[in-house]
Amino acid sequence: MFVVLFAFILIFSAVPFTAAAEGYELYLGGFPAGFVLNTTSVEVVGISEVMTDSGLASPGRECGLKTGDIIKSINGTDVNGSSDVNKWLYEEGVELKLTILRGEEEYNFTVKPVKDVTTGKVRLGILIKDSLSGVGTVTYIDKTAGKFASLGHPVTDTSNNVIGINGGCIYGCVIYDVKKGVRGTPGELKGAIESNNIIGKASVNTPCGVFGEISADYDTSNLVKIEKGDINDVNIGKAQIYSTINANTIECYDISIVKVDKNNKDNRNFVIKIEDKDLISVTGGIVQGMSGSPIVQNGKLIGAVTHVFVNDPTRGFGISVENMMNAY
Q1: Which residues, at least 6 apart from 327, have a Cβ–Cβ distance to it below 8 Å?
Q2: Rounded CA gap, 205 and 80, in Å?
Q3: Looking at the chain, which terminus has fewer C-beta neighbours within 10 angstroms, N or C?
Q4: Is the CB of residue 155 less than 8 Å from the CB of residue 163?
Q5: CB burial class (10 A; 0-12, 13-18, 19+) of residue 110?
Q6: Containing H/E element for 27?
Q7: pTM, entire model
Q8: How many other CB atoms are there within 10 angstroms of residue 78's CB atom?
Q9: Cα–Cα dist 285/314, whole Å
Q10: How many CB atoms lie within 10 A of CB 90?
């Protein structure tokens, strides 16, 4: 999902922003980012063959491993990265005991690595990964604390569990295409990562989004300073979201706040409806990659877009900014 450096060109409608309190530097996001996160788990993403003296072999397949398995431990030692797997691959034929998480169940397998005659290296015949990447939206930058907030929801695995991370980076991102959402099928923003444009370092993946430290030299001069809104002051009715659906151009789009639920346990504090015809014509409404787009009402930041209704892409959920700020 991911080169050329673009300046952030902000295009805002005449919404009366409230100046942030003196000494408190909160800046409105709405710009896309490419996320490359180091996970604390190692996933089997493929099964491969190894050329041995006796022909092709795949110890991983033969012992019962499958794509999607999470390697929890080897010989009783926790596995938190691909290096924790590789350190055991020093001699062929050495029996390794693997504990695997498959869905919600744990399994134990015994595997003997073999030597690849083409490289001389010992292998298991599996492909693994310990990182993930994707495109999302930055919600705000707290320059006083040197932090950024993004997504508004966690990055999860196929079982909807929050994935633990061990650092990572977020980069500038150029949106180059949009897959329009339709009823029953969510749309998607497609972006290219600007690998020479580091926005910050990811620290945590929480139920309220991905947070981290903003780069010390990150330029906020083109961003709008904004005040945090209070969920108790949010009204049913008109509001705006700020998002990027083309290149690096942040634009303002009209929405309605349909429902407010301050104490929702799943951080679904708002139900929103996209009203902007231009946005609907391009995206169909809310699409993947727009998660984190800030929601503004009466010139104050009140939250971020998090989810789309699959059967109505013009509607979705939002999280309150208080919940995001309390998470990190």
Answers
A1: 204, 206, 207, 208, 209, 211
A2: 16
A3: N
A4: yes
A5: exposed
A6: strand 26-28
A7: 0.82
A8: 11
A9: 4
A10: 10
**Residues 6 or more apart in contact with residue 74 via CB below 8 angstroms:** 84, 85, 88, 96, 97, 98, 99
Which residues 6+ apart lie within 8 Å of 116 measured at CB?
A: 50, 51, 52, 122, 123
Dump pLDDT digits (tens) for 261-280.
999 999 999 999 999 999 99
Tokens of 214: 């903003």
- The C-alpha atoms of residue 280 and residue 187 are separated, in whole angstroms, by 11
For the CA atoms of 32, 156, 234, 273, the dihedral, rounded to the nearest 10 degrees, stands at: 70
Query: Is pLDDT of 21 > 50?
Result: no
Query: Which residues are catalytic, by number?
Result: 153, 276, 291
DSSP class of residue 233 equals: G
How long is the chain?
328
Over residues 151-170, the pLDDT tens digits come to 999 998 877 889 999 999 99
Helices (H) and strands (E) in the chain, counts: 4, 23
Q: How far is CA 247 from CA 93, 150, 189, in A?
A: 52, 18, 11
First to last CA, the chain: 27
Kindly list the distances between the CA atom of residue 193 and the CA atoms of 100, 140, 179, 302, in Å, as whole numbers in the listed order: 33, 19, 18, 28
Beta-bridged to residue 110, according to DSSP, are: 97
